[in-house]
Specification:
Keywords: Membrane, Transmembrane, Transmembrane helix. With about 130 residues, the protein is mostly helical. It has one domain. The chain is built from 4 helices and no strands. α2 runs antiparallel to α3, α2 runs parallel beside α4 and α3 runs antiparallel to α4. The radius of gyration is 16 Å and the shape is globular.
Amino acid sequence: MSKNKFLFTFYLSLILLSLLVFCLHLLILYFFGFPLLDHMIVLAYLLNVVLALIIFSVLYWFREKWRDQIGFLFLGGSMLKFLFFFLVFYPFYNADGNMESLEFTTFFVPYLVCLLLETFFTARMLNS
């Protein structure tokens, strides 16, 4: 697979999978009678997708030069996402002194989707 095609495949996969999961997330919220756009759900998906795009792009650009450090860069990217969670979402979610499971899943679902896809593509990148 050509270099640009691999990167494009990741971008397209990430965006399409995130949109699919977002729609399923909203459908589940609707089915259980929860408000659809509460708890900064749109921001959670957008921020996770944008950070995943940036982090994977950095990994991709440095895949040959820093091949032995890609794992550490990957972990650093995951820590960056958690930093954004604690800076952007946690104060909002914990404003009442209690973080509900619905608030946690609003951030964690897109985080997990992006992380799994990043992991899969990073492994493919390193194995090629």
